[in-house]
Every structure is written in structure tokens, then in C-alpha cells.
Amino acid sequence: MKILNNILYLGSFFGSLLAVTSCSEDFLERPPVDAIVDAGFYQTDDQVLASTALLYSKVWFDYNDKASYNLGDFRAGTAFSAYNDRGNVLFNTTGNTPENGSAWRSFFIVVGQSNLAISNINQYAGEAVSPAIKKMAIAEARFMRAVAYRSLVMNWGAVPIIENNLELLSDTTVSRNTPESVWKFLTSEMRQVAEDLPATPIRPGRITRWSAEGMLARFYLTRAGVESAGSGTRNQAFLDSAKYYSERVITQSGLSLLKNYGDLFLFPYDNNSESLFSLQWVYSPGAYGTQNSTPAYLAFSPDIANGDGWGGDKSATWWMLGQYEGIKQTATGMQGRTVDQRLKATFMLPGASYPEITQTIPGGEQKLIVPNPGGDNNFVSIKKYVTGKAKDVGGLSASQNYGHDTYMMRLAEMYLVHAEAVLGNNASTNDPTALKYYNAIHTRAGLPVFAGPLTFDIIFKERLVEFAMEGMAWYDLVSLHYYNPTKAYAILNSQDRGLFATAPDVFPNPTSWTFTKTAWSTTERTINANSGNFLLPIPSAELSQAPNLQKPAVDYYSK
């Protein structure tokens, strides 16, 4: 029998959990054809693994499409759009902001589909399915559910924990759960998941126990501040746990940092030695939802894309550019250059060359040289995840259809998690291991060895430049906000998110750039982050259909 056909539509909120019932693409009813939800499907190891394969892609599509950078980077202030997505850029995201709704919907689809996978595997796995594969597949689903809930609780605060979709058929009292109990659930879940996943990937791109232990390091670093109520200090036991798990991943996983930072985003980079967890997109002509659509919105022009390339007004913010060593404030703006290789790999400065990308020019083509449009307003365009035309990636791309993966966790994060966990509640540290791990990231970027001491501001800045345009910065600010909201607001409210012009000293291949604020653009340069607007509002459509979401949150107790 069809499991999905037995799930009733229970309003927009529950509908977002179970959106598969009405999706025109027969969402998650493949592979092969309408079989993934059949009771007779889960009869072999391959079929069980197929049942969790789309948990690595399609269920995340609505988040990855545009919400990932709108929430993770626009709201955080690392990048902006001059004319679109302004609610997120200006920090006034509302219940009707499209990316707010699509992120909420996507995360709960992940939760719902993970729950259904767990239920179906437990109920229908045949005798030929090996116990190891059954255990692993269930662990994969629990992993995805926990990762989705981490995003839900950090964006919206109190959210309802749902471990069994089918119970919604008879339970109309589902309420939001307190952030503290959500975090307790997350860490408890991920500890069990780590025990059940294999140490090496059973297939390329599949998660391992090191993926789970990496998430535990991330979870515990954040959870250390969750119950602090703005006290400015973090729970030492949880900091110790973050240190423990991050060091295990660094020293025992067998993973390694890529030698050159820029190689992380050069085709083909999927499932490299630094990837702990990536969304597994596939270029597939005619298919929808399993491909990576994000590059379509980031590439600055159709000249370097495939009939898309709609990111002409997207740019690093003035504030973000100031985070790179060597770019310094002057009396009239900013000026300089940086040896930090992460800038060129993340953002495109006028005159910079990218031989891996083909650019259409009048009368022909050339290897990309970023144009210098001049004027008093132009953009430092997005480079990460922009890989060029189909000919640049072996023919494996088309309009809104790209096959390269999205990083959800890289090994580099473990090095900085460890350094921050060691720093803990201290003002600074010269701990040799923390410095060694910090410098592994810092020097890979081409920067000189940092002698110390490490402080929160130094580690936070390193995270900004390491993970810019990977949807990470917002969650770093939320982690800080748990225990030091005043500092989080101060960072956000100090940012300049307004228009500016960038001029190279020579063209092409400049040696430095001058940055000048656009004189006529005097409004919308800063935001006012505060306790009333820091968390996202629950999407209006959900509140209208699920009034329990407006009730006071209660603690969650796992069944």
C-alpha cells in the first residue's frame, strides 16, 4: 500500500511536513517509479539505500535554491543584493518574506521525509536487508532530521519537534518546544547517530560517524551558550564536548584539508577529502529538484552562465571586504590588497582573472576577466559555487541545472570549533593546539603564521572569511546571541550594507583596489538588530493554519 496516500492534509504547517502528497513532481516517489514508498520496496540493501538517497538532495531544494544565502549571508551582513531580497538585507524579514517561508517549508520537509524513511524501514525492511544497512539508513534519516532541526531552532527559536508524522493524524495539540529542549534532543539524537554510522562512506557522498561527530562538535559549541540567558559565559561541559568531538574528527577521521583553498570550489570538487557532509546534487536534463539551482542566482551575468546568471546586483558588503587582511580604512574609504586567497575564491574583484570560467565577449569568448564597469556604484560579485558555462564543467550544466554539491560541513570548521572551544570563557588563549589548528586554516589561505594570543574576535573573523557565502555567518551570530546578545547586536549594527564602487589600480590583473562609498546612497546603509527582530517570524501561512504555533512553548520529552 502507498504510505503517503494515507497521510491527510492537515493545514499548511502539517502540509509542509507532508508536501509530497500534492507535489506535481511526485515528490520523493522515486526511484525507481512510485516505488520508494511501497511496502514491497524495502527488500534489498540497495533498495533501502535508495530510500534515503534523496534525503541528500531533493528535500533540501527549497532551502538551497535561494534561502540559504538570503538567511545565511544577507541577514548576517557578509553579502547583499542591491535591488532584490531587500527584506533580508535590511534585517526586516517578515512572515511573508519568500525565503522565510521556503526555508521553513524545506526544513520541515526534511523532518517529515526523514520520519517517513525511519517508519518505512522499520516496518517494511525485508529479511534480505542486512542489519548493518538497516541501522545505517535509519541513522542517515535521524542525522538529516537533526540537522534540519538545528536550522529551525536557530532561525525561529521554539519549534515543534515531530518524530512521527503519522501521529499527527490523531494529535491536534502539537505545540512548539522550548529551544533548550530542542537542543537537548539534537545532541542526544546525534550521539546515537554517531554510534550507528560507519567510519567510512558506504558510497561516495554518504555520511559517516565522522559527519555525526562533526555535527556534535558544532552542536555542543552552540549549546554551550543556549542556557546562558545572555550572561556572557558558556557551559564548560558543553565546550569540553565540542573540543572532544572536533579533535576526534581532526585526528581520527582520515580526512584532510585541501592544500589550496580555491580548489574547494573548482570543478570537479565533489566529495573531496575535506567534505564532512555535502548535499549531493545531480545534473539531470529534464529533472527538477535534484539539481543545484543556486549558481543561477549568483553568477553576475549570462556571459559566464547558461542562459541564467541573474546575480548582477549581488555583492560582498563593504563591511565584509573590511574583514580581509590588507584592505584598510582610509580617510575617503578603503584601499589595499590582500594575500588572503579566500577573497578571490569567494568574491570577484574587477580585473581579476578566472581561467576556469569562459566569458562571452563581443565577437567571441575568452577566459574570464572580471569587468571594470566604473562609475560610482558597482559590485564585488559572488564567485563561490559559480563554475561557468557547460563547456567549463564537462557539459554537465544548463540553465538552473548544475550538478556540483553544496557543502554543509567542512573539516576546516572542526579546526576553528576546537580553537573556540579551548578559548571558551577566557578573554584569550595561547594554547598551542588551539593555535596550531587556527593556523592550519589561516596559513592555508596564504597568510603568515599568527603568533597569538587567540581571542573570540580573531576566531570569529577567521570564520567569516573562511565560510563567507556558505550560509554560515548567520548561524555564528545566532550562536553568539545565545549567550551575548549585546555583542551580536553590536556586530550587526556596525555593518555597512550600502552601495559602493570598486576601482582597480590597473586593468587587468590589478595589484590593489580602492573602495569608495556611493555618495548619493546615504540611506539603508545600516540596520537596527534587536531582541524584537533577531529571530525570524514564523511564516504567516503557517500561523493562519496552525494556531498552536502561537501558544507558549513547552519542554519536549522524547517518547
UniProtKB/TrEMBL annotation:
It is found in: Cell outer membrane. The keyword DNA damage does not apply. Residues 98-221 form the SusD-like N-terminal domain. Residues 285-551 form the RagB/SusD domain. The keyword Signal applies. Belongs to the SusD family. This is RagB/SusD family nutrient uptake outer membrane protein. It comes from Dyadobacter chenhuakuii.
